[in-house]
Amino acid sequence: MSKKPLALVTGGAQGIGFACAEALAQDGAQIVLCDINEEGVKSASEKLGSNTVAITCDMGDADQISAMFDQIESDYGIVEILVNNAGIAMPGDFLETSLEQFKKVIDINLIGTYVALQRAAKSMVAHKVEGSIINMSSINAVVAIPSIAAYCASKGGVTQLTKSASLALAPHNIRVNAVGPGSIDTEMLAGVNANPDAMKMVMSRTPLQRIGDASEIGNVVAFLASKKASYITGETIYVDGGRLGMNYTC
Fold first, then answer.
1. Tens of pLDDT along 130-173?
2. 105-116: per-residue pLDDT in tens?
3. 181 closest CA partner among 10, 19, 6
4. Domains recognised in the chain with CATH numbers
5. Is residue 114 among the annotated active site residues?
6. How far is the C-alpha of 12 from the C-alpha of 137, rounded, in Å?
7. Active-site residue, selected from the candidate residues 76, 151, 231, 238
């Protein structure tokens, strides 16, 4: 592979993760796609072309994350751009959600993000790489939905982790930011797309009156990874069609 910036995108087999990888590839990065879905991530890697490789990893397993970084560093070099995108929601009734379900969401969305962020940062610091780390938060770090309490908690944690890590890594010129998507056209929103009443509710809280495309998240991630964002760290950019600015729905 040619000497291009090395970017690792977790949860990259589809949706927002794939869109992030696509945008970074268009900007000239060499891509490592990670996902728990082995067939899916291999297929996604083939779609992106020759400067992309696929790795299977469960982002809820710290040992697998560590082994993944060891493999990447051995085979391709130091990760210069990390996109912590892997995540799950597991919706359900608040009173019926088990502790095991709650922990699973936290393990992947928050602890997995922390483990990968810290591991990437250690290598960046050791090799004097002035890298960029982008975590995937959500508008649900700020606003809440009762059926996805664990998801909301995990994304709130990601936002604060982003701030803390940005302060810790600023002396090394490593930038840490987050992106908070609103309603984006992915498989996670497929049930809403198929339900006219649910879609009407989504539109009532979205000033731009449409759902977002995954590429619109990918473009913001690519911007944050680039030198164009060289003075931005510790921030969460909410890409939500104006939703967080509303104080009413109609």
1. 999 999 999 999 999 999 999 999 999 999 999 999 999 999 99
2. 999 999 999 999
3. 19
4. 6-241 (3.40.50.720)
5. no
6. 15
7. 151
